[in-house]
Amino acid sequence: MGRLDGRLAWARLPGRGPGVVFLPGFRSDMQGSKAIFLRDHCAARGQAFLRLDYSGHGESDGRFEDGTIGQWAADALALFDALTEGPQILVGSSMGGWIALLIARQRAARLAGLIGIAPAPDFTDKLLWPALPPEARQALTRDGMIQLPSQYGEPTPVTRALIEDGKRQSVLDTPIDLPCPVRILQGMADPDVPWRHALRILDALVQGDARVTLVKDGDHRLSRPEDLRLLAETLDSLIA
């Protein structure tokens, strides 16, 4: 475990390349089941591996409600630059898939592959905002923050700054041109990110080496043993 600038928490394994970087989701962190599974899988392979916490997440400093997509992407990019070298495979879960695409814009030459697990690029504008009832939108505009019920635990603070910054960080409204293979793993029983969103990402990608794997009974987390096996097989195929 370490901290960048005394602020951002990270943990890594030394090993061979290409390295693997895990980018967690919205309100998730580097202690989640997929992050730990990938750590152990990469350790068994002898593969370099980095996991991290954005500001306001996990063990990093800051308040969650002060964060935005742009801030969390900048956090991840700073850790990527400071702690990795050579080609890397980005693995982004949910919001981490959006963060991965934002890193890819700036470090395309460093990428050996990108895996999205129920990736949620542009979710603030294309999924979250349209799902809010009118009174919630009015409260968000008026008060600057609302608390949304969450099936995963405590209510989730959603800020006007998050929504506004999300529009500026949009990646799906223009072609996405990456120099590496892209793999998307998506559950069709996902209540948070509709499976058709994965097809929207596929449609935006320019390159031909991009595939979506749909898991008919898969939920948003895709953390069951069979889901984790699929993730390992997908990663191993990119490394090979």
What is the string of helix and strand elements? EEEHEHEHEHHEEHEHEH
The CATH architecture name reads: 3-Layer(aba) Sandwich
Class computed from helices, strands and strand pairing: alpha/beta
Please provide the count of β strands: 10
Instruction: Kindly report the name of the CATH homologous superfamily.
Output: Alpha/Beta hydrolase fold, catalytic domain
Classify the helix fraction into a percent range.
25-40%
CA-based shape:
globular
Runs in which pLDDT lies below 50 for 5 or more consecutive residues are none
What integer value in Å does the Rg equal?
Answer: 17 Å
CATH top-level class: Alpha Beta
CA-to-CA gap between the ends?
28 Å
Major sheet size, sense and barrel closure: 8 strands, mixed
Percent in strands = 25-35%
Organism: Falsiroseomonas algicola
InterPro entries: AB_hydrolase_1 (IPR000073), AB_hydrolase_fold (IPR029058), ABHD10_acyl-thioesterase (IPR052382)
Pfam family, one: Abhydrolase_6
GO molecular function: mycophenolic acid acyl-glucuronide esterase activity; palmitoyl-(protein) hydrolase activity
What does it look like?
The protein is of the alpha/beta class. The protein has a single domain (2-121, 175-237), classed as Rossmann fold (3-Layer(aba) Sandwich), CATH 3.40.50. It is 39% helix and 25% strand. The chain has eight helices and ten strands. It has helices at residues 33-45, 69-83, 95-106, 123-131, 134-143, 160-168, 195-204, 225-239, and strands spanning 2-4, 8-13, 16-23, 47-52, 88-93, 111-117, 145-150, 153-159, 182-187, 210-215. The chain has an eight-stranded mixed beta sheet with strand order 1-2-4-3-5-6-9-10, with helices on both faces. The chain has a two-stranded antiparallel sheet with strand order 7-8. Helix 4 packs across helix 6 (160-168). The radius of gyration is 17 Å and the shape is globular. InterPro entries: AB_hydrolase_1, AB_hydrolase_fold, ABHD10_acyl-thioesterase. It catalyses: mycophenolic acid O-acyl-beta-D-glucuronide + H2O = mycophenolate + D-glucuronate + H(+); S-hexadecanoyl-L-cysteinyl-[protein] + H2O = L-cysteinyl-[protein] + hexadecanoate + H(+).
